[in-house]
Every structure is written in structure tokens, then in C-alpha cells.
């Protein structure tokens, strides 16, 4: 009897010990995760003493709000519409090996995208209707091969759509609407989408052919998108014209040669019968008579660069001017400003097919180009009847003058030797490469490439 009594008490002791240590590791992880959240009163019924996936009908639904179980293991966390904020502690959640679904929709989280790629086996991610912001790294979804659903709509994300998102093999639901994503849409792996929405962003360019069968509403609100299922992409002809104009003011390839070639320009590119007029200084009457004293709001100089002195249209019109030459896009003049270095003013021939917003946008793109072998415009003037482009004046003339003997030479100066010509060629090549990289959507961003458009 004594031995049976001892055995009974031993069994009772083991049962009591197991009861005392009933808190599961998953419960401890979730309680730690809860502490990282602000305004978490909606989770007050998270109780570490209660089994997360209990089959007990008396506790089911009363504890652990927002958790779902599958086959007796934690499957998903869906904490939505709870006004939660703070930090989503991904490092802590990564310890939940069975977690497959994560949702925090319609809360008040802000800041950058959480590092969800640490949750490799995740199948569904719901972060919509929060205040997340900033760019998402290109590898944010790397190796998440089981991810089927990504909901990031109505946040403040910006930058490009991450490439790792487009290559997910299992993805069938994607919603990025109502953010500030920009750039081109990446090439998604072809699949049968259950949900696809990129509307109301700042995306541009041609829609990839693999998405041509998606409903057009999925791309609405992106004013610079084109191609099926939207309207056809516009011909780059207009941009070709504008690109040619930029060559006229030496946007293409301005080569900075050593100080020996920094001499004043002495010879005009006009025909011989215009040579005398080209050397005469005058006011910029070529435009002044055509511009009334009171003009519309956008009839003023629009500066695209801020690294040089600002001047107004009236000062430009009063400046002494010298005719430099003429080309297929208009005539050029050198203007001597009273409060700054001289500038080149190019009066463009009529381009009725180009509106103010389109012209302004393109000039802004050119103004942002920064490269030692390219000369972007300083400012421009736009009216329906007349358009002016203003750029810096380069006093060493152009390559054509030096090659064909029109440039002034000092005694002992033998012109362009072969090492110098090689440096010029390299500079032109670098300028062209950078121009194609900055303006990839244009068929011919440099316009007319000829020696008279290469300034020294």
C-alpha cells in the first residue's frame, strides 16, 4: 500500500508541475510583441495562461483577439481597425514558425516598410490603410516564395515598385493603389490574377505586355502611363524636336577643354552677307517689339537652374546683343547682362504642337541634368507665338570653328592636335552616354550631332 501511495503522489506532483508551467512559448512571444504596440487596449484579452489554440468551448473567442489557428497551431494575426500604432516587431514575430498570415489594415502605423522578408514562409500580408511612407527597398520581398497576397493600398509609399515583388512566383493578389509609387511598372511574371490594382500613383511609361489583359481601372490615376489596356503610347516625335532644340543651345555635348582654348568667340556662324550685322551690338529688339508690357502669368522667364544670378525678361530685352548664328530651330544671340556673365538666347521657330506644360516639363528635365560634358538650359520663355531658350555663353567657340580654321589663333597656337581631339571625342561620348541614361524614353535625345554643336 505504501508503494502505491508513493506512486499516486508522484503522478499528482507531475500533473501539478505541468499545470504550473502551462504558458506556451508562442504565448510569451505574442505578449512580447504586444508590448511593442501603442494604444493596444483592444488586445487586453491576450492572456498567456490561456492556450492560444484551445479547443475548450468556454474560452474560444473570449481570448487572444485577432489570432487564427489551423490544425492546432497559430496560423494568422489579423489586428485590423484597432487604432494601433508603434512598431511592428518583425524580429519577434519571426520566432512564430507556423505564422502564415499577417494583417494590420486600417490602423495608425507610420514610418518605413517593416522588414517582412524576415517572415519567409508568410502567405498573406495586409498593411493597407495606414500611414507607412518612404521608398521600399528593391529586395523587400526577396525569397518570399509562398507569398500570395500583398495589400499595401492607401499609404504614402513612394519610389519604384520593388523588383522582388514582381518576381514572386505565388503572388495572385496585389493592391498598391493610392500611394506615390513612380517610375515604370516592372515586368511581372505572367499569372492569373485574382486582384491587381496600381491605380492612383505616379507611374509612367509603357505598361508591360504581360499586364495587357488587366482591366484598365487597375491603372487609372497614373497620368503618364500608356499602352494596353490604356491608350497607345504617344510618338516620341515631339520630344525629338525638343531634343534637337537642346542641341541648338549646346545641351548635347559641351566639352570643357584646358585653359588654352578659353578665348573669346570672334566669328559668327551667319553667312558672309550677314557677317557685318552679326558683329554689331544692339538691344534685343528681335523680341521686344513683339512682347507687350503686360503679359499673361506664364509669360515670364522660367528658371530651371538656381546656381547662377537671376534676371528678369525686361533686363534681358535691354541687354546689348550680338547675333551668333542661325539653324533649323531658330537664331541665337549673345546677350551681355548688367549683373552677371553673358548668356546665349535662342529664339525658337514656331512649335505649335508643344504646349506650355509639356514644354515646361521637358525643360525641367533638362535643367536637372548634371554632367561636366553637358550644358543644360538656364531658363526659358514661353508664349504661343514665341519661345526663347537661355543658356550659358561658352567663349571658346565650337568644334567646327577650330577644325576648319575659323577660330582666332594666337601666335604659336597650332590648333587642335591629335591628343586634344581624342579628349574631345571622349567627352562627347561621355556626354552622349549620360544623356541616354537620363532620358531613356526618347528615341534620339541628342538631336543633331555635328561639330558646330560641340562647344569648347
From TrEMBL:
Gene Ontology molecular function: ATP binding; protein kinase activity
Keyword ATP-binding assigned: no
Primary location class: membrane
Subcellular location: Membrane
Domain Protein kinase as annotated: residue spans: 318-456
Keyword Secreted listed: no
Signal peptide range: 1-22
Residue intervals passing through the bilayer: 239-258
SUPFAM superfamilies assigned to the protein according to its UniProt record, in alphabetical order: L domain-like, Protein kinase-like (PK-like)
Any one Pfam family match given in the protein's UniProt record, by short name: LRRNT_2
Keywords: Leucine-rich repeat, Membrane, Repeat, Signal, Transmembrane, Transmembrane helix
GO cellular component terms attached to this protein's record: membrane
Record-given protein name: Pollen receptor-like kinase 4
Annotated source species: Momordica charantia (Bitter gourd)
Gene that this polypeptide is encoded by: LOC111007953
Amino acid at each position: 500500500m505504501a508503494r502505491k501511495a508513493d506512486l499516486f503522489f508522484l503522478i499528482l506532483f507531475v500533473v501539478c508541475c505541468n499545470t504550473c508551467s502551462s504558458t506556451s512559448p508562442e504565448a510569451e512571444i505574442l505578449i512580447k510583441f504586444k508590448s511593442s504596440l501603442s494604444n493596444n487596449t483592444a488586445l487586453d484579452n491576450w492572456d498567456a495562461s490561456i492556450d492560444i489554440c484551445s479547443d475548450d468551448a468556454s474560452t474560444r473567442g473570449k481570448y487572444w483577439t485577432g489570432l487564427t489557428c489551423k490544425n492546432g497551431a497559430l496560423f494568422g494575426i489579423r489586428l485590423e481597425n484597432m487604432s494601433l500604432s508603434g512598431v511592428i516587431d518583425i524580429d519577434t514575430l519571426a520566432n512564430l514558425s507556423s505564422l502564415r498570415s499577417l494583417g494590420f489594415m486600417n490602423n495608425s502605423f507610420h514610418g518605413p516598410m517593416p522588414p517582412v522578408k524576415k517572415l519567409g514562409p508568410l502567405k498573406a500580408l495586409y498593411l493597407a490603410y495606414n500611414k507607412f511612407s518612404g521608398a521600399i527597398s528593391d529586395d523587400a520581398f526577396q525569397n518570399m516564395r509562398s507569398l500570395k497576397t500583398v495589400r499595401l493600398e492607401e499609404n504614402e509609399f513612394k519610389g519604384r515598385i520593388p523588383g522582388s515583388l514582381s518576381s514572386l512566383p505565388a503572388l495572385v493578389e496585389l493592391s498598391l493603389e493610392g500611394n506615390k509609387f513612380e517610375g515604370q511598372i516592372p515586368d511581372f511574371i505572367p499569372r492569373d490574377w485574382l486582384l491587381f490594382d496600381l491605380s492612383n500613383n505616379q507611374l509612367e511609361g509603357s505598361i508591360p505586355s504581360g499586364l495587357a489583359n488587366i482591366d484598365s481601372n487597375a491603372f487609372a490615376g497614373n497620368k503618364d502611363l500608356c499602352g494596353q489596356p490604356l491608350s497607345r503610347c504617344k510618338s516620341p516625335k515631339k520630344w525629338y524636336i525638343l531634343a534637337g532644340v537642346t542641341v541648338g543651345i549646346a545641351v548635347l555635348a559641351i566639352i570643357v577643354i584646358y585653359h588654352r582654348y578659353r578665348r573669346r568667340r570672334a566669328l559668327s556662324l551667319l553667312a558672309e552677307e550677314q557677317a557685318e550685322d552679326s558683329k554689331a551690338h544692339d538691344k534685343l529688339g528681335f523680341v521686344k517689339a513683339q512682347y507687350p508690357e503686360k503679359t499673361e502669368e506664364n509669360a515670364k522667364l522660367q528658371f530651371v537652374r538656381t546656381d547662377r544670378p537671376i534676371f528678369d525678361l525686361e533686363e534681358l530685352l535691354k541687354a546689348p546683343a550680338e547675333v551668333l548664328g542661325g539653324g533649323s530651330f531658330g537664331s541665337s544671340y549673345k546677350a551681355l547682362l548688367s549683373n552677371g556673365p553673358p548668356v546665349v538666347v535662342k529664339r525658337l521657330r514656331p512649335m505649335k504642337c508643344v504646349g506650355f506644360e509639356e514644354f515646361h516639363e521637358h525643360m525641367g528635365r533638362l535643367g536637372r541634368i548634371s554632367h561636366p560634358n553637358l550644358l543644360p538650359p538656364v531658363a526659358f520663355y514661353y508664349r504661343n507665338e514665341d519661345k526663347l531658350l537661355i543658356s550659358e555663353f561658352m567663349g571658346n567657340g565650337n568644334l567646327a570653328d577650330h577644325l576648319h580654321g575659323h577660330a582666332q589663333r594666337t601666335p604659336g597656337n597650332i590648333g587642335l592636335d591629335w591628343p586634344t581631339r581624342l579628349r574631345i571625342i571622349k567627352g562627347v561620348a561621355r556626354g552622349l552616354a549620360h544623356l541616354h541614361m537620363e532620358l531613356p524614353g526618347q528615341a534620339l535625345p541628342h538631336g543633331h550631332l555635328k561639330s558646330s554643336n560641340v562647344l569648347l
